[in-house]
Amino acid sequence: MYNIYNPEAETMPLDKLRALQSERLIETVKRVYEKVPAYKKKFDEAGVKPEDIKSIDDLHKLPFTYKQDLRDNYPYGLFAVPMEDIVRIHASSGTTGKQTVVGYTRNDLKIWGEVMARTIGAGGVTKKDIGHISYGYGLFTGGLGGHIGSETIGCTTIPASTGNTARQVTILQDFKPTFILCTPSYALTIAEYMAEHGITKENLSLKYGFFGAEPWTRGMQQEIESRLGIECFDIYGLSEIIGPGVAYECQAHSGLHVNEDHFVLEIIDPNTGEVLPDGEKGEVVFTCITKEALPLIRYRTHDVGYKITEPCACGRTSVRIGKLLGRSDDMLIIRGVNVFPSQIEGVLVTLDEVAPHYQLIVDRIDNKDKLTVLVEMTEENFTDEVRKIEAMAAKIRKEIENVLGISVNVRLVAPKTITRFEGKAVRVIDNRKLHD
Amino acid sequence: MTIKQLSIFVENRVGSLLDVTSVLRENGIDMRAFSVAETTDFGIVRLIVNKPSVAKEKLREAGLTVVETPVIGVLLEDTPGTFHSVLEELFRANISIEYTYAFAKNSGSHKAYMMLRVEDTEKAVKALSAAGFTLLSPSDVYDE
Fold this sequence. Notes:
The structure holds two protein chains of two kinds.
Chain A: H1 7-10, H2 14-35, H3 37-46, H4 67-72, E1 86-91, E2 101-105, H5 106-121, E3 130-133, H6 141-153, E4 156-158, H7 165-174, E5 179-182, H8 184-196, E6 208-211, H9 218-228, E7 231-238, E8 243-249, E9 256-258, E10 263-268, E11 282-288, E12 299-305, E13 307-308, E14 320-321, E15 332-334, E16 337-339, H10 341-348, E17 354-365, E18 368-377, H11 386-404, E19 409-413, E20 428-430
Parallel strand pairs in A: 3-4, 3-5, 5-6, 6-7, 17-20, 18-19
Antiparallel strand pairs in A: 1-2, 7-8, 8-9, 9-14, 10-11, 11-12, 13-14, 15-16, 17-18
Helix pairs in contact in A: 2-3, 5-6, 7-8, 8-9, 10-11
Chain B: E1 3-11, H1 16-26, E2 31-38, E3 42-49, H2 52-61, E4 65-77, H3 82-92, E5 97-104, E6 111-118, H4 121-130, H5 138-141
Antiparallel strand pairs in B: 1-3, 1-4, 2-3, 4-6, 5-6
C-alpha cells in the first residue's frame, strides 16, 4: 500500500541506522578537519578534536555552522574537495543577504538523485509516471533537484521550469504529466489560471503534487488538492544541505521523513544551542554525513520544527519533522509575539469569502506595532452592501486574532491586486524602523 | 420596474475613482446617477448609466469588481414633503431601506428621482405603484 523507493535504506532497523550514522559522521568530521581550514579553526576554537567524536551521540559536542560561515568563505571556501572534483554549482536566492554558493561532486549528485527519488517515490510515483518540474531551473536547487529525482526513478521528465502559466497549463493538458513539483503558491496560480480559462482538473492527468520551498499550511494543501484533483506531499530541503530531498512526506501524511542515512537531524533551542527533547519545538539543525563537496556540520537552518519519533504507518524507520512552522527569517515579532505568515495563510484558506493571497504590512505608530493584513475580495463574494462587507472583514479579523493572539487590522483589497509570485512569495512589508 | 445599478468595489487610495471614470469615458458611457458609500478602507461606487451591460463588461475587463443591483427610482415633485410620503408608504408596507440617493431628472426640470435600495424590491415596487408614485422605467435611463 505504501510506495517505498528504496526499502533497504528507508526501513533500515534503527540500531543499524545509528551505526551507519556513527561511521559516516566520524569519517566526515575527520575529513572536514583535515580539508577545510575554516572547520579546523572552528573545531580548535571549540576545543574539540575529530577523535572526540566516537559515535552519533557525540554530535552535540561539535560547533554549529551558520549561514554567515558560507558568506565569510564565499564562494568556495568551505568546499572539502579540490575544484576539479566539483561538477555542479548552485546558489541560494539571496533574499536575506549575499547569496550562498554550494557545490556538488559527481557522487553528491548521485546522492541527490537517490534522496529525491525517495521523496517523489514516497508519494506513489513509479517509473511509469510523467513528471512536470515547475520549479525554477538555474542556480536555485528546486528545478534540477526535482529533475534528478524524477529521472533517477526513471520517470518521463518535463523540465517546464517556472513562468508562462499559459504554456504550463497547455503542457499539463497535452503532455499529460501525472505529477508536478512547484511552489505551493505557484500551484494556486496555475489553478486560478485554469479557472479563468474554463479548464477543469478533469482536463489534466495529474495525480500527485510535491510542494515546498516556502512555508505553507494544511489548509492550503487542501485547497490545492481540491482545485487540481491531486494528492499533495510536502517536501523539505535547503541548498546548503543538498536542496530538495532532505525530508519528505509519505502517503501516511504524518510528518516529513528525514533521509537520516545522509542528513542527521537535531532540534535545538535557538537561544542556548542546547539539543531539545524529542517533540519540543525548536530550530532545525542538519549535519551532512555523506556529502563530499560541502559536508556542513550542525548547520543552523533557521527553520522551526519538532521531531516525531513514533513509528510511522508506512514502515519507514526514519525520524520525522513535524510540520515546519515557518522560517525564523520570515518570523515577525509583533508586540513581543512571534508571528509566522503561514499562520495567517492557514486561516485564510479555511474561509470561503477570500482568496488565499495576502500581504502583511507592519508599521510602528506611536511606538506600537501595528499589523495590517491585506486580503483579496473575491468577485463571487462582493456585495453592494457596506455592512455585509464590513461583517466579512470583521469575521476574518476575528479568526486571525484567534490564531495569532494579537490584534490586527484587516483591509480588503480588490481581486488580483496582490502580486502573484512564481518563486518564493514576498508577503511581508515591514515599515518599522528598528535600526537607525 | 427596477433599474440596474452597477456597484463597484474600490480601494481607499488616491486615484481609485479614476479607474472607474476612465473606463466610462473610453467607452462613451453616460452617467445618470452616481453615489459613493465609503468606509475607512474601501468604498462602493454606485452608478446608473445609459448602457449598463456594456459598462459592466468593460469595467470587469479593466479588472474591477462589479455587481448589478436592482434599485427603484421614484419621481418626486419639487415640493416639501414628497420624499416623506414615499418613506411613509414604505414604512406602512414594513420595508426597510438599505440606502438611498437622489438625481435630478434633467436640467430645467423641477423634478428629481430618489433612488432606493430596499430589502424587498418587488414588494416596494407594488406598494409605491399602488400609492400612485411614478417609478423610473428602464427606457427613461437606458440607451441600449
